[in-house]
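Bumping my old thread because nobody answered last time. Still need a sequence for this structure:
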């Protein structure tokens, strides 16, 4: 048990470092950007409450601004009273609305004079950009009490000329089974590298958690492009226990094109 606990702590540290590195290698921006940060700090009962949002978006492209605004609205659970092209309005809505929601979660009745702080933080930023596409990242951390909080991450790639989302539709639909197999193999490699000597292929956590004969589905949150690869990120508990945080793997765009795994029109854009 002690050995397992040490492994779990070390694993969480590794995956946290990997997660925090998302977007650090983004290509040089080719467009101007706008940004906003907003925070609400309040109190309910014995608990402090904090909501924070940071947004960085490209500007100067109407179609792209509209599409990214729609993505942000989905992330913040916005409504039709908000202008989806106004990042300040969206940021203010998020922190105020989530602070109200967290007040409803403040039910600490312990003996301590102060209960655990409740929080919801969201960071929306540019992960990758080239002349043709831009990928936005949405990372959220929510703590509602209990043993640990929850982290969610989603990457969304947009065609810069049209604002169109380049999601699972960039995959050749008749090759999805092959893509799923490659993703599963990549995740096994992730587990082997992450677990080190603790890894046992015959008792892989991936098989134990999802069933030995089940083919993994692609991530519920979709896929995105980072540099020269398609990235597949799974949420906590989606395919593996919490200790593995946000499991991910990637496939080279060039290799996918050569194997016929990309939709024909999109494949022509891959050099």
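Sorry it took so long. Here it is:
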């Amino acid at each position: 048990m002690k050995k397992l606990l040490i492994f779990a702590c070390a694993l969480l540290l590794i995956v946290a470092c990997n997660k925090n590195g998302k977007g650090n290698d983004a290509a040089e921006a080719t467009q101007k950007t706008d940004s906003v940060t907003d925070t609400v700090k309040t109190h309910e009962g014995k608990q402090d409450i904090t909501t924070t949002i940071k947004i960085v978006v490209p500007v100067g492209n109407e179609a792209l601004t509209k599409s990214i605004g729609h993505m942000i609205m989905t992330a913040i659970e916005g409504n039709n009273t908000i202008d989806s092209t106004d990042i300040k309005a969206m940021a203010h809505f998020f922190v105020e609305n989530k602070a109200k929601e967290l007040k409803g979660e403040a039910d600490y009745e312990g003996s301590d004079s102060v209960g655990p702080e409740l929080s919801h933080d969201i960071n929306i930023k540019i992960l990758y950009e080239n002349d043709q596409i831009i990928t936005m990242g949405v990372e959220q951390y929510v703590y509602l009490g209990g043993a640990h909080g929850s982290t969610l991450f989603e990457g969304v790639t947009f065609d810069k000329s049209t604002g169109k989302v380049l999601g699972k539709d960039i995959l050749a639909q008749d090759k999805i089974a092959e893509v799923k197999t490659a993703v599963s193999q990549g995740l096994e490699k992730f587990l082997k590298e992450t677990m080190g000597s603790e890894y046992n292929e015959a008792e892989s956590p991936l098989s134990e958690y999802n069933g030995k004969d089940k083919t993994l589905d692609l991530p519920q949150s979709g896929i995105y492009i980072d540099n020269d690869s398609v990235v597949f990120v799974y949420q906590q508990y989606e395919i593996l226990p919490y200790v593995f945080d946000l499991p991910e793997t990637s496939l080279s765009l060039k290799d996918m094109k050569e194997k016929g795994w990309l939709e024909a029109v999109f494949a022509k854009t891959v050099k």
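Residues 1-16 have pLDDT under 50 and may be disordered. Let me know if any region looks off to you.
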